[in-house]
Amino acid sequence: MNADSLPPPDRSRARRPDLREPEHHIDACIAVDWSGAIATVRTRLWLAESRANRLVRVECGFDRPSLVRHLIACAERDPSLVVGLDFAFAFPLWFTEHLGAESARELWEIVARKAEMWLARCPSPFWGKPYVRCPPRARDRNPLRRTEEEHVPVGGQGPKSVFQIGGAGTVGTGSLRGMPYLRELQDAGFAIWPFDAPRLPMVVELYPRYLTGKVHKASLIARALYIQAHHAHESREMQDLAACSEDAFDAAVSAACMQRFARDFPRIADHPRSRIDRLEGRIWKPLRDPVFERW
What we know:
By secondary structure, the chain is of the alpha/beta class. It folds into two domains: 23-90 and 175-280, YqgF/RNase H-like domain (Nucleotidyltransferase, domain 5), CATH 3.30.420; 93-135 and 143-169, no CATH class. Helix content is 36%, strand content 10%. It is built from twelve helices and six strands. A six-stranded mixed β-sheet has the order 3-2-1-4-6-5. Helix 4 runs antiparallel to helix 7 (179-187) and helix 9 (220-230) packs antiparallel against helix 10. The model is unreliable at 1-14 (pLDDT under 50).
């Protein structure tokens, strides 16, 4: 689907749905497996959408600007929408303070100006480029955010530091090239949780490993068997698309999980947002473990 062919969004809605209003239940969830790639972004950036507990599409072909425009258009047609994006929305608090940012919005503005320079030069505390090793961990400079340390690693793997911008498992490149787009989504009416009070449409940060559990994603056979075991109710077309690549797999399983636990989204409105939440962000997880909940 080409986002450029969509009709221009209707921005006339002054009032957005409240998460806690029963008539505004969440019908659709979209998960995006984000990518920091440049040359291969249209094959690496995947989107999946689930409605009424069924996957209705799993697709790629977007670049980052067209994907963001597409999400905005989707929300204009259906404001009762939750979008999950697979990249870190912020830095550890100490680095945000070092940059002089007093809000997430100010941080995203700084990232928009400096991201490409950081990626090119890899200044400390960034690392991962050739000959730039991970710096020693200082007591007052934890490379992980609080939300990334809160949960037991899945299969020995947990979220990596946003400061890693090269090497296996890199998450920093996609995050640095993703944070500036949060401004555009926010300006279009999305609440970026937990920086904004939760309301619809809403964007949340995902870590797909929390939602998929332990699986050897590099193996096509392992992905296909996982989809058949956990998502047998999906159409054969959606199952084949979901298993076709690691990126498609993460997007599809995340969207299906968000929809299955859609009733959890209104509940986050009942919990206060701490200063850490508003400056570091928080990875969204269902209230029940999605891997063991079925048992």
